[in-house]
Amino acid sequence: MSIPEGYMQDAAGRLVLIEHVKPEHLLEDELVRSLAKEAEELNAALLKFRAKCFTEARAFLDVLHEKYGVKRGGDKGNFQLKAYDGSLRLLVSINDCVAFGPELQVAKELVDSCLKCWSNGANKNLSVIVNDAFDVGKEGKLRKDKIFGLLRHNIEDEEWQRAMQAISDSIRVDASREYVRFHKRSTIEGKWELVPLDMAKA
Known about the structure:
With 202 residues, the protein is of the alpha+beta class. Helix content is 45%, strand content 19%. Strand 5 (171-184) and strand 6 form a beta hairpin. The longest helix has 45 residues, at 23-67. It is flat and about 75 Å long.
């Protein structure tokens, strides 16, 4: 909807004559719009820079592969590049985002059955670990690291093994996310410090 000249639209979608808007509200509106415009420009520049990092870093890998007569096997895999003096490094990483399929519910029922069958005191601690793993966090998301932790328990029980197989079968690679990070250090043996590209961490 186009806003007629001399009017502003409020948060409820109503048209208000500019002369009826308080001066401080006009100033606030102008300030927010001005800074938001700069934020969008910075965001666009950051996206462009991110794409450039991936493109040029992988182009460098292509040069190395060509030198040794090896065909590069796609964009999967993590790698790092360093400045000659060791003071700077570029990390490129690809992380798979894991989700769980309906088999996880079957696994939970099998695990519950195991816990009911095991009555000795030594398994009370395991019961806490298991229930905590299948509990959802504050954001309603499963605790993936704790579910994966169950797979590390070497328990010789046929039903438990079926539960662990169900967990394994439930794992889905939902998507892959690419990350690029820069680090610097003041001395060769110094600690790597992240160069923050996130405004909240700068």
